[in-house]
Amino acid sequence: MSQIAFITGATSGFGRAAARRFAEGGWSLVLSGRRKERLDELKAELESKVPVYVAELDVRDAKAVQDMVAALPEQFRAVKALVNNAGLALSPGPAQGVALEDWQTMIDTNVTGLVNVTHTLLPTLLETGAGASIINIGSVAGQWPYPGGHVYGATKAFVKQFGYNLRCDLISTGVRVTDIAPGMAETEFTLVRTKGDQSASDKLYRGTTPLTAEDIAEQIFYVATLPDHININRLEVMPSRQAWSSFAVDRD
Ligand code: NDP
Ligand code: 8X3
Questions:
Q1: Domain 4-237, CATH homologous superfamily name and number
Q2: pLDDT of the residue at 2
Q3: What interface predicted TM-score (ipTM) does this complex get?
Q4: Catalysed reaction(s) (predicted)?
């Protein structure tokens, strides 16, 4: 059985940590993202352990995704685990102040991008069959509304429901589908969300204990390496120092 993981958004955060975790587990890696120099650095770091193929890829571009998969060298073709991790949030303020372009970027990346990659790799995963996995990185924001969640949370709700619906169709194929839904985790996520405001990012994580990229990488690897007959449908993971809060009430 092939042991190849295909990870999108491997240049940072969960994706990069997952690449390291799969390498530790002896899996071959197909890694993508838009920042080529970071991909090259990661390849240099990991290729003494396992075979690594890297490709500069913007998941929003369906044709680029198809071309990249079609160009995979033979030894990297039989993908067993697809980790749909590439994604982002933008504009953490109220919906009424957000530029349309930011909503579109989130939809194009978190929804269209994830669909592009899944559609392109589905035939490969079906060929791999029993034990293959599609592991989608959703979010607590796909389940729980919060102020400033607007389109970001809605894209992650799509990720969750798309995965559940895929499971219905893939039931007899052996291909598993999981929505891993992290809560607060310290990565470059908030830096991206605030368009480069390092102090806002530092402030969000200060004085508490967020999840780390490695915590989520461990969950991704766990899901991918479970016995073939087990499908985790959704894994919601929060820091123990994060929880829900009360309903908001507008008062006079
Ligand atoms: P990072 O910003 O650290 O990493 C995001 C990754 O996504 C980068 O590797 C980036 O690569 C890639 N990416 C973004 N846009 C594109 C694109 N158009 N095409 C290809 N790759 C892209 O954040 P995280 O690691 O935290 O985020 C990973 C996933 O986890 C996202 O889907 C996010 O929504 C989700 N998540 C994050 C949480 C958190 O608190 N950190 C909690 C819950 C979910 P590059 O820029 O090089 O293209
Ligand atoms: C990112 C985590 O808590 O900002 O998906 O929604 S949170």
A1: NAD(P)-binding Rossmann-like Domain (3.40.50.720)
A2: 57
A3: 0.99
A4: 2-hydroxyethane-1-sulfonate + NADP(+) = sulfoacetaldehyde + NADPH + H(+)
Cβ of 184 closer than 6 Å to ligand 2, yes or no, is yes
Residue 152 a catalytic site member? yes
Residue 19 and residue 7 in contact, taking contact as beta carbons nearer than 8 Å: yes
Determine which one of 53, 152, 205, 222 is catalytic.
152
Percent helix / strand / coil, the chain, rounded to 5: 45, 15, 40
pTM: 0.98
Beta carbons within 8 Å of 27's beta carbon, 6+ residues apart: 3, 4, 5, 50, 80, 81
pLDDT digits (tens, 9 = 90+) for 178-214: 999 999 999 999 999 999 999 999 999 999 999 999 9
Interatomic CA distance for residues 90 and 148, integer angstroms: 10
Task: Reduce the DSSP state of residue 147 to 3 states and report it.
Answer: coil
What separation in Å is there between the alpha carbon of 100 and the centre of ligand 2?
20
Compute, in angstroms, the gap from residue 187 CA to the centroid of ligand 1: 9
Read off the pLDDT of residues 124-151 as tens digits, 9 standing for 90 and up: 999 999 999 999 999 999 999 999 999 9
Residues lining ligand 1, Cβ inside 6 A: 8-9, 11-15, 33-35, 57-60, 85-88, 109, 113, 137, 139, 182, 184-185, 187-189, 192
Torsion of CA 180, 181, 184, 187, to 10 degrees: 40
Here the tokens at position 192 are 């991206």
